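task queued by scheduler; priority normal; single chain, no ligands, no partner chains; default sampling; output format set to structure tokens
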Amino acid sequence: MLKEFKDFIAKGNVMDMAVGIIIGAAFTAIVKSLVGDLISPIISLFMGGVDFSGMYMLLGEGTFASIAAAEEAGAAVFAYGRFVMAIINFLIVAFVVFMLVKSLNKMKKKEEEAPKADPGPSELDILMEIRDSLKK
């Protein structure tokens, strides 16, 4: 059973998937920073200083200065701003992945369309040529 597990792990697909998951996690951190540090402030600027991540509705009694204060107090909040930011994150990730796949497909297509180098005569052709020239 241990040998079967070792063979399973050693297969290329499993290793490729593991690498993909690790790179995906790192990529998520980059996109999160891109959205939170670059895109959100620009959107906020055009919307008059509105910060999506801080938008919420209180689902109960009380008044709180921020969503963090409401959550710290244990109040139920409907954090729709975070949901908007999650949608923006998803759209950016989807677009970047789309562009990546599109460029990879374009490279593959160019590679397939590239003229194949003529390998020249085969060994058999050369031997037949030598034989024919020796017959003369």
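post-processing summary
- The CA atoms of residues 39 and 48 lie 14 Å apart.
- The mean pLDDT is 83.
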